[in-house]
Each structure stands twice: as C-alpha cells, then as structure tokens.
Write a structure and sequence with these properties.
alpha+beta, 10 helices, 275 residues, 6-stranded antiparallel sheet
C-alpha cells in the first residue's frame, strides 16, 4: 500500500464521513526547503501539505466544531493548487469553484477532522486537473523559470535538437501549449510595456527581500538555459534582450551578470551599449 493509499483508504471505525469547507489560500506545502516542496517532479506527485477546513456536514448528524481545523497530509500537487486558489480573486480562481467543499473523515468521538478523503476529492475535482496542471508547470515545475521566459511573444522553435533534453522537453510542451500562434519578435509597444512593468517590479521587490531572493534565484537558474537556447536559434534574440532588460531593470540581476548571459548566448550588446 502506497503513501497516498494509506491516507485515502477508508479508515476504521469510529471515523465517520463528512464534508468540509476549504478556507481559501490556506492550503500549502510543508516540505523541508524554503518553498516547502518535497516532491515537485510532477503535477501528480504527492506533497506533504497543510490546510484549514471547516466542517459543514457529518454523516452521523452529530455535533460539529465551529472553529476551523488544520489538517496535514499528502496531497497531489494539482489538488493542492485547486484547494489553495478556489474562492480567491486570482486569475486561476476564475476557472475554479467559487467555494470548495471536500470529503473528509471525522473522528466520531472527538469530532476532529482526521484527513481529507483524497481519492474521492480527486474524482470530484478531476475536471479542474488540467487547469491546475498548467498552473503547476508555470509556477512550480523544475523548469518553470525557463517556461516563463520562453513563453514571451516570439518563441522560435528552431534547432531544438541542439539543446539539453530538459529544455527540449519544455519547448515540446510549449509547442502544443502555444499551438496556433505564429512565432514573432516582440513589438516596440510590448517592449515598452515590459520596460515599465519591470521598473515597477523592481520597486516592489525592493520592499520584499525574501521575494527578491526567490526571483533572483529563478533568474540565475534560467539564464544559462535561455542563453544556450538563444545561441542554438531556438529563442529569438529580441526576446532574449527583453528578458535581460526585465531582469536588470527590476534589479534581479546585475549588468555584469546580464553581460555574461549575453556572452554565453553569443549575441552582440544592444544598440548604444558600449560593453
């Protein structure tokens, strides 16, 4: 019996079935690293998670505590994302239930929630799996920073075989994700909008050192891969320069680090740059 099976299987009496309201944004990882990720290799992977639940119904008709109860157990990445965003004002939430009530098992004596019935919850929420999978890929997957950068307008899918396997797989996924859109360079208007957004982002990150550190770590991880993709012709030069502009104007990377990425990509400095 696997780990999720132990949490999902019908528990012995005196547990009773129930339904509980998921408090929005209360569901998160409780792993060992800064982000709490313990297994983020797949949207289906089990992640030890914590969430706040409010009992709404129990099968035996008995009393229900009024206060929210915190429950910790493994949840699939995609299920955790659905539970976190449902009922919030995020873009993802617009495609999720306005209120989320999940099946749970309740201790008949203490009236405490023992665990979420994950098998039933996953079956009930299956229609949201693909939406959550895409969100996981863009925000938590091992190559999420690369996907975010390469998803900018102008993705050029040339010379893919010259790239490392991880980037090839990412580009293959993006090919299907972005199907129907012809590759193009960023327009001057898009570049100017990105310039303004990057400047505002820089001020926001300046006030949040922890978030700045996370964004910087992602940029330093993605930079060498994006530079290699640019050198191979699989990522447009205009988009590469826009990515560098975004990182430097928001003060995520230094000008020296940007120059190093540019050298790795084998591209000339932008017009007016004497370096």
């Amino acid at each position: 019996m696997g780990l999720l099976d132990r949490w999902s299987a019908t528990p012995p009496t005196p547990s009773v079935a129930g339904r509980a309201y998921v408090v929005p944004t209360s569901t998160g990882n409780v792993g060992s690293d800064d982000e709490g990720n313990v297994d983020n290799t797949s949207h289906r992977a089990s992640v030890r998670s914590t969430t706040l639940l409010e009992l709404r119904w129990v099968a035996d008709g008995g009393p229900m505590p009024a206060e929210a109860q915190r429950v910790t157990q493994p949840l699939a990445n995609w299920l955790r994302i659905v539970m976190h965003d449902a009922g919030t004002n995020t873009d993802l939430a617009a495609r999720l239930p306005a209120e989320l009530v999940v099946p749970v098992w309740v201790d008949a004596a203490t009236r405490r929630i023992e665990r979420i019935d994950t098998d039933t919850a996953e079956a009930e929420l299956e229609r949201f799996r693909e939406t959550a999978r895409r969100e996981w890929k863009e925000t938590e997957a091992p190559l999420a920073p690369v996907r975010q950068a390469m998803a900018l307008p102008g993705l050029v899918l040339r010379g893919v075989r010259a790239l490392p396997k991880g980037i090839r797989d990412t580009i293959s996924e993006l090919r299907s994700d972005l199907a129907g859109g012809a590759p193009r360079d960023p327009t001057p208007a898009e570049t100017e909008q990105l310039r303004r957004t990057s400047t505002i982002l820089g001020y926001q990150l300046e006030r949040d050192p922890k978030q700045h550190a996370r964004v910087r770590a992602s940029a330093l991880q993605a930079g060498p891969m994006i530079a290699e993709a640019t050198r191979a012709g699989s990522y447009g030069y205009g988009n590469f320069e826009n990515w560098l502009m975004m990182q430097t104007l928001s003060r995520v990377i230094t000008e020296e680090e940007a120059a190093a990425f540019r050298a790795a990509a084998g591209t000339p400095p932008p017009d007016g740059d004497p370096s």
